[in-house]
Amino acid sequence: MGVRMFTDKTIVITGASSGIGKAAAIQLAKKGATVILVARREALLKDVADEINAAGGIAHWYAGDLSKVEAIDQLTESILADHSVIDVLVNNAGRSIRRPMEESLDRYHDFQRCMDINYFAPVRLIRNFLPALTRSGSGHIINSTTWGTLLPVAGFGPYNASKIALDSMANTLRMEMEDQGHSVTQVHFPLVHTAMSDATTSFKKLPGMTPEEAGGWIVKAVQQKPRAIMDMKTRVASGLYFCFPGVVEKISKFSPFSVKKRQRAVE
């Protein structure tokens, strides 16, 4: 199972049935962590747990719908009944909607769905797991977010708004809890080629990370506990945006990620 540097850690990972969450869970288990897998799709979740356990790791799985508060509470109650101490919570489950704002005016649920999964679910999970994270003595919260919270991009209004809310809450939580030994890390992913991003056909032709590479960023976050993780392009571009917002916004309109008015968008 490789170098087992996380043998003392119990890590909850949401969205663990596929993509980044699955890749991160496998890599963390190889390094000795006990991983608690959370996702909606029970059969796929069990397959990931079986794969990890068959390879000599330790994985437990709990299926639940994170779009419903009652389901989150039942899920966390079940997990905490079996694991009273949680060392790391990885809020990785997410929902992306790519559509011009004008086309979302009659689709208020675009905003609600993104907020439910990308913001309210992590907040509820943090609220429910915080005592168990505190008992660990060094609780760590990792949130999967996007470069789109740092730079302008057209077409992702509901999605980016939900992720920006998560960024802001996380920054406040970090400041309030660091004296108690808690760490909070925001992972600003660029394009990652998963089933969610591949729903937009044009994205398949763009350079991006594999789920395994993105999972490696989660492993890095667990190991180093930085405030944020992002690639150098995002770091430089966000600095330029702070200094020259008008110029960067004009350039961004030509980005392959931006959606123009009345352009067909994919959810």
TrEMBL record:
Pfam families: adh_short (PF00106). Keywords: Oxidoreductase. InterPro entries: NAD(P)-bd_dom_sf, SDR_fam. Belongs to the short-chain dehydrogenases/reductases (SDR) family. PANTHER family: DEHYDROGENASE/REDUCTASE SDR FAMILY MEMBER 7B (PTHR44196), DEHYDROGENASE_REDUCTASE SDR FAMILY MEMBER 7B (PTHR44196:SF1). This is SDR family oxidoreductase.
